Amino acid sequence: MNVYIVGRGAVGTYLGDLLRNVGVNVEYAPRKLNEVTPCDADVAIVATKAYDTPGAIETLRAAIAYPQKCVFVSPQNGVGNEERLGQAFGAENVVAAALTTPVDRDRDGNARPAKEGGLALAPIGGNAYNWLAATFSSTGLAVRVVENWRALKWSKLALNVVANASCAILNVLPNRFVHFDKIFTLEIRMIREVRSVMQALGLDPIDLPRYPVRGLFAVASLPSPLSRTLLAHTIAGARGTKPPSLLLDLRSARPETEVDVLNGAVASAGRDHGVPTPVNAVYARVLNDIAHTPPLWAKYRERPDRLEAEVEAEVKRAKVLVRGYSNQG
User: Fold this and answer.
1) Per the CB 3.0–4.6 Å rule, which of 7, 43, 111, 162 could disulfide with 13?
2) pLDDT tens digit string along 224-247?
């Protein structure tokens, strides 16, 4: 089997190493488009950040000699990547994926799994791709195949948003973030918004390897003091002093982050389906503002009161809009 991987970060390297260990021929895409050479790949894995998906598609157009014979796998975070790949290469050739194994890099730059996890796969077309699941299973990775690819990606999104944008905006690590009681209550509201949007979309949460997403929603639905206690313990134990992805992006002064395909996607779907999502909307807006204008970060660093005020202002604006629509009616 020949596998072509776009993205040589922690995830791409980790999956590539696993496949090489079972005899799969793995090739990585070069960074520059003009250095790409055509290859005969059976599988193409897109392991880039979501905002790099358009560039990855251009690389794949140049690299994959026979795209009609190739399956394109997206273990990327957020929603929207599979749709783009489907438009480029056909939905029948695309498989959605969710990797739940946290991957770090050691001092030598090698990808190392931080904890146990697994890989969930869901074809977005009618093809089953049992051979693909079997190949990943042969690496020792726990693999689960699910039917509803949208439910899969939204379930992974539910995990990705927890203690991510909020930590990034406040510039704090998860083990400290959980002690900000008021802002942690906002985090619970944010999780509830994700669940409400999924319900509006007709999507049931899917438990992923090692991560019971349905349990996350169940805990978040409890009275806030109890859910805050339970979630704080889980987050502090699972993430501790590891900076979440959006915080790493801000600390690297990157002008782009994945917040638009995470909290931003929740807010967008909420608007389309009439579901209030003030917390997700504020998280996405504020984080984008900071990414594009870094000096603004000083306003929110370790100032949960200011982030809370932004959310409450968003709630008031939404109520004014609703009154305005009612009066027009």
Assistant:
1) 111
2) 888 888 888 777 666 667 899 999
